[in-house]
Amino acid sequence: MKKELIVYVKSPENKKVVTAALESGVSAILLDKPESKKVKSLAKVKTIAPDGDYKLGEEFVIVEIRGKEDEERAAELLKKGKKVIVKTTDWTIIPLENLLAQGDEVYAWVRNSKEAETAITILEKGVKGVVLDTEDVNEIKATGEAISLVGENVKLEVARIKRVKPIGMCDRVCIDTCSNMKRGEGALVGNSSAGMFLVHAETESNPYVAARPFRVNAGAVHMYVRLPGGRTKYLAEIESGDEIMIYNYKGEGRIAYVGRAKVERRPMLLIEAETEDGKKVSGILQNAETIRLTSPKGEPISVVDLKEGDEVLVYTEEPGRHFGMKVKETIVEK
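Above: the chain sequence. Below: its structure as tokens.
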């Protein structure tokens, strides 16, 4: 779920703060006074204020947590359907954890990007959004970037398998992440950044091999893997501490950190598929039962069982990359 960034603006006259907030993708500006018109004169943006699109004190309520009594009041407001902005005197996450068990409309008052990153990942699901209280333009931008990387979703497409061809021994990369994945989740990899398969995590077990839900057996060293921010890297470049994107079959993404990446010689398969509108996707994956693509319903499909016409999930875009960053250029990849 995409998180919301709200920036607290002490004075709309401080145009640097307002502009930085707007450029950082804010969901709304929070104002103490009825000064929404001043903010809206700079850009089309929602406000939370006494005269705002959302009424401060009615739809959004700020609760400062000093003790259990305040926490109970916040919980009662959540039960009444209010959006509760939680302020803590020493920025402890315990009240936020307790309140997240009471409802989803919890927002955390934060002072910097680090506090924001913690708040949006508390108990895995995190708060619905953060209210950032700073006049540091760089901190506003850093927080906006941190928020944008959570819930980084993509539109997956259905492609039909066209060809599965054994090609012999190659160097392949197996990525062990620091996160466990569930059925229907995996990483996006492909021969081209313009077309990637959703390669399923090793969540399945059989009589011969135990499940390794933290692992994506990703493919040959030359292939691309999708990273946060729409970037890519060659699988050969992936190393411990790197961030990669994990997606489920609905296209909902989250960041996972790489624990290790193993390069080993293995027998491989060239797999080619095509979307309904003719976009081609290909990849070179290990020829083994434990390597799986993902069906449109989120079911893992072993590469050794693939046949022409089978439907799998892919991601496509216009080709063109320079050092992993998307660029607009004329390019043909075969």
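The first strand starts at residue 4 and ends at 8.
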